[in-house]
Amino acid sequence: MNPYFNLKTRHSEVPRRVYARLDNVESLGGADTVLFSYEAVNADWEGFEGDGLFPLDLGAGVISRRRRGSNADQNDPKFRRILWKHYDRFPFYGVEITAWGQEIRFLLDLGYSWLEMLLEPTDEKDAQIQVYSGLFAKPAAAKFIWPPRRSKHSRALAATFNMSAHPNARPAQIQKVFKGRVGPESLGICDVGQGNANVVLDGNGQPLFYFDLGCGVKGNAPTTPKPLSFCLCGDPPIILSHWDADHWAGAVIDPRALHRTWIAPRQRLSGPHQVALGANILSHGGRLLLVPTPTVPRAPLSISLGSTSVLYLQRATGKDKNGSGLVLTVAQKRLDRAWLLTGDADYAYIHTMPHSSLAGLVVPHHGADMKSATPAPAPPKMKNKPDYCRLAYSFGPGNKNGRTSISHPTTSAVTRHNTVGWDHGNWVKTGNTPGTVLAGGDVRATASNPSPHLNGIIVGWNKPPSPRAICPKCKIPMKLVQT
Ligand SMILES: [Zn+2]
Ligand SMILES: [Zn+2]
Prior knowledge:
Elements: E1 17-27, E2 33-42, H1 60-70, H2 77-87, E3 92-100, H3 101-110, E4 115-121, E5 129-132, E6 140-150, H4 154-160, H5 171-177, E7 186-189, E8 198-201, E9 207-211, E10 238-239, H6 250-253, E11 261-265, H7 272-283, E12 287-291, E13 301-304, E14 309-315, E15 326-332, E16 337-341, E17 357-362, E18 390-393, H8 411-419, E19 443-445, E20 456-459, E21 468-470, E22 477-482
Parallel strand pairs: 9-10, 10-11, 11-12, 16-17, 17-18, 18-19, 20-22
Antiparallel strand pairs: 1-2, 1-4, 2-3, 3-5, 4-6, 5-6, 7-8, 7-20, 8-9, 13-14, 14-15, 15-16, 21-22
Helix pairs in contact: 1-4, 2-7
This protein binds zinc ion (ZN) (2 copies).
């Protein structure tokens, strides 16, 4: 595995020169402070030189030909070894820039081009730049020697880091993965800290499949519960909502997950770290099925989960990574109830809402402020249906985002769901900040701010299921104890 994914906590160092590609833009409370996250690689790495693996000076054509020569067939064991060798050597970094005023425009204009940045360490308190040498490392403070600029090697870098080695999956291929996976009885929202990992369980409490396998990373790495492992009894496939690390990093902590079948959206914005994760899935003997981006919103792919239930898989219709991921509905036909799993996609981008009344809903983006005018879907009691329902918030205790330290869940997300009828209990009582006390009502959360962990949540179809503390087979703690 690439050392960037290493769990060992260490202090980061600041490389002098990096190539960086925008990964995420997040507004930090209001429009005037914005956090730009980049996936970066040390530009002075020998592998980018003339006799290295990826000679940037020789241009995109040479690199593409070298890659093509080795990736004629992704199932070829030789190809897997080559990928493993290549992608495990990149000296990766994460770079976060907090920007105000004109800087925001400047960085937005540079957009998703490959950039070159010249950095140096700083002792300044409140430094503008945080550099991470690993997904779970402590950051180092840095400042620019020179403002970021477009790299002259953009095309060669794009040829080095892309998902072209992975073919698009056909719908029938995806449906086949779920053959024999029948009878979903409960939905688990795992406590993984500031991230997302949901699991659909059968009547014996065994995983049928996962939706995301994330955890807290970078600044939020301390929110990840230790140890972190997942019950993988029955070889469950993993559906990845989108390529943000807080939705897949659990798999590098528990690498047994890399041996599974992964179903993920093809996202044009996939950066170098994601490409390395894809390579790691293949090199560990796993399978990666990419769902292409449709040119027009399509009806969800319907996947049978036995005679009682259906899984509907759809692409969200937004443009950015959060808004263009995979969204799942699991529906129980006889009871006419559904669970809706959103990843980080706003409701505005969910083309097909469940027809059945919601028994479970996982709030988008950990309860972030989505700046959206689209109302949240209402709980069933608004429609005089049975009133058991659960609204789940997945966030890490004491999570912070950017220098202004905005934390999830936000008042905006809570108000948005409370307004349409989800009973938020204590979170909306006067004087209480949402997420700092136990909610009650319909609402469950994986944590309280600033602490503690509250463990996972288990949701049924029409009544609370029994808690699932441990898997009786593999003995791995599942901690789905909140009903
Ligand atoms: Zn197990
Ligand atoms: Zn997320």
